[in-house]
Every structure is written in structure tokens, then in C-alpha cells.
Amino acid sequence: MDKYFFANAVLSVFCKNYMGLKKGLPVRPSEMGVLNIISETAGPHTPVMLAEMLKVSKPMITAHITSLEKNGYIIRSPSPQDKRAYYILPTEKAKTLVQEAKSDLKNKLDVLKKELGRNEFNALVAIAEKANKIIERNNYEV
User: Fold this and answer.
1) What is the pLDDT of residue 142?
2) Distance CA 136, CA 40 (A)
3) In what helix (H) or strand (E) does residue 77 lie, and over which residues does it extend?
4) 127 partner at 20 to 30 Å CA-CA among 1, 76, 93, 119?
5) Per-residue pLDDT for 12 more than 50?
6) Are residues 58 and 48 in contact, defined by beta-carbon separation less than 8 angstroms?
């Protein structure tokens, strides 16, 4: 088997399996990214800031915000300085979901860490981080 084909196959299965760790969420993984940011980092958070942090388009963030608001996970709060702008705030429902999802993912990653061992687990994370930076630096489409 060609080494690049094999690498592609292994990485594809890994990505699929990793995304599978997040199954069962009532929101899409990309929407969960929005909830994680607004629940776990200091605000205020604007749609433009969220798009930049998640490296997605403004229309994509707008779609996420609309869906999350419709389902009771966020509220829009008008900016006191600029009445056209607004901030995205998590509801209690969002904060609860983020904490439950964080705990569930931690438990699943703890199994991976236990079976790989601390050093291999840390190496896996470090290599993935380095690969992400290389891909981003070279402007590959993600």
C-alpha cells in the first residue's frame, strides 16, 4: 500500500473516531464550538470575533447563532455603544450542556490517555497541534 494512501486512511479513520466521541450532542459540533467559547472564555463575544476564533465565515456564524438562539442556548444582547452590534451570551441551558459535554469528553480522553500512556498521549496532542499550525501557515483549505 502506498504510504500516502495509508497515512490518509489512518488519519481519516482517526478524525471519524474522534468526532464520534462527541456523538449524542443536541447541537452540531461546530455549534458546540460557539457554546464552548462563549461559556468558557471572558466576553463580550461578537459574531465577528467568534467567526475569527473558529476560522469560519460570517454567514456560517450567523447560521449557528440563529440555530442556537432558536433552541434556547444563547441570547443576543445589544451593544450599549453601537445599537447595530450585539453580543452573544450563553443561557443556563448552554452552560449546563458545555459542562456535561466537557465531562463526557474528558472521561473518553482519559481512557485514550490511560491506554496510550501519558507520554504517547502528550506526543499525539503535540504532533496534532504542530500539524494544525503547518496546515494553517500554508493556507490549506480546511
Assistant:
1) 47
2) 24
3) strand 74-78
4) 1
5) yes
6) yes
Task: Give the long-range contacts of residues 131-140, CB within 8 A, separation 24 or more.
Answer: 136/55
> Could you tell me if 26 and 71 are in contact, meaning their C-beta atoms sit under 8 angstroms apart?
yes
Q: Which residues, listed in sequence order, are joined to residue 86 by a DSSP beta bridge? A: 78
3-class secondary structure, 80:
coil
For residue 105, pLDDT over 80 is answered with yes
Do the Cβ atoms of 37 and 73 come closer than 8 Å?
no
Please give the biggest Cα pair distance in the chain: 61
C-alpha distances in Å from residue 99, one per residue of 2, 13, 104, 127: 43, 27, 9, 27
Judged by DSSP in three states, 114 sits in helix
Residue with cell 443556563: 92
- C-alpha 131, offset from chain centre: 17
Over residues 57-87, the pLDDT tens digits come to 999 999 999 999 999 999 999 888 877 889 9
Residue 74, helix vs strand vs coil = strand
Report residue 58 as a C-alpha cell: 460570517
Query: What pTM, to 2 d.p., does this model score?
Result: 0.78
Say whether pLDDT at 140 is over 70: no
